[in-house]
Write a structure and sequence with these properties.
4 copies of one chain form a homotetramer.
Chain A: H1 9-21, H2 24-28, E1 32-37, E2 40-46, H3 60-79, E3 83-92, E4 100-110, E5 114-125, E6 128-141
């Protein structure tokens, strides 16, 4: 990137929360940005009945939503520009049973046009975090509009 | 598989719908099994405001939900036993703008313990289907309980 | 893409073979471009002892090489510019036992800067093709140099 | 796993090297197991001209070979049984230019029948390691034979 990006942690978090608040789907399931800095994001989803599947576990689609969104934030803050998720891959490790999902993502490499990020998704129960999915994906910078 | 699986198309569809009806998250976003046969599934999600992100496109997490669930059904009907999604990968191709998402999945190989499946996710607008994501993943048979 | 790409099938194939001939690793394992057109590629690798693993099957690394390279050709001919593989995912379906690997890839979506492609890898024995792996990945256009 | 696995580091390494020595393809490109313990593996490939592509970088197929094989070893030692790679995904980050590839893999979750592993692939030049690819995949236990 040609321009330096100097954003305070408070501003990053405020921006991240403001974006999430404008995503009706994220609001629908109660997702929340817990922390955000350049190349790192923690996002959580409270486990209500509405996000479960037929066995009472969190639906895989919600686990993948959490991974996808956390990857996007990690890549977006690493690149410092508006982004979209190009692709990601997720491995489910265990049924997610607990009070909330916690997705922790970080950028492992940020180039000029894209960042590659990894994410661990935990389910938290009684304060104990259990890893329930791991993901890896590519976040792409949206083309800049001419000035 | 050692036992033959002979299920009528109507029974497959009824079973698929019955499972979906017991997934609160699938009910929340209005997902529906359109068709189901051995190794094939069509699943749709109506595009309401609730499933969108900040730019008015369907949220990537909902696109990945549709892919994940359609892959699971394709693998489950190919294997003929209860299953879970082990892993999948998705590439987003275009913003999803339209009236409904339509995820078409099929099994490309079913072994004894797992099936590998592919999925195309379309967004349908005015009767026109536009491919907006492609996915590939592994569906694993749940361990059979002793009789 | 702004400029039209009009390349004859013979020219595509000649270009593809010329590139492969300049890849020492592809020469080492005897890879060959069988056919090439805009967004489509067939690439084969003869099965010699040198490409096997300890059980006599083709080594997974060679199967993934074939998928990777076929994806790159399919994406490169779809985009019409020099490219690199950004990422791919592969599922191995069966041990590859036969006379040659045949990787068939096609572009499912080509944008301005990248193409998303799929690949089926077959092993051919006595004229019979058996699917042994499926892959999906992203091929990125290299940045154009000014001038 | 029902049986305890107690293997000394020296035995792990000797076993790993013995398997690699029986893989003609691994011998062809000079791959070597650097270290091996339960759920962890370091594997290296010297960069000779033979493993390069047309621009002088290590061929992507060789990078993916290194990732695939390191993932397999990490999963195999985590599970303690004979295994195969079911699937993996790789993101290429930078051209690999240097003296040797070094793939470091570790198991992030090992169940009864499969392990999910991650891998970082570095290229080493003048003693400096540069991350050039990241991978994630599933290693499956081969079915145990009765008796």
């Amino acid at each position: 990137m040609t321009e330096p990006v100097t954003v305070s942690p408070e501003d990053f978090l405020a921006m991240g929360r403001e974006v999430l608040a404008r995503q009706p789907f994220s609001v629908l399931i109660g997702a929340e940005v817990v922390s955000l800095s350049a190349g790192r994001c923690e996002l959580q989803v409270p486990v209500s009945d509405a996000v479960k599947q037929q066995n009472g576990f969190v639906h895989g689609g919600v686990v993948s939503y959490a991974a996808d969104n956390a990857l996007t934030y990690a890549g977006g803050t690493a690149l410092g520009v508006p982004v979209v998720t190009s692709e990601f891959k997720i491995n489910y490790l265990r049924p997610a049973i607990g009070e909330r999902l916690l997705a922790r993502a970080e950028s492992v490499h940020a180039g000029r046009t894209q960042a590659v990020c990894r994410c661990d998704v935990f389910v938290v129960k009684g304060g104990v975090e259990t890893l329930c999915a791991v993901a890896q994906g590519t976040i792409a910078a949206l083309a800049r509009q001419p000035g």
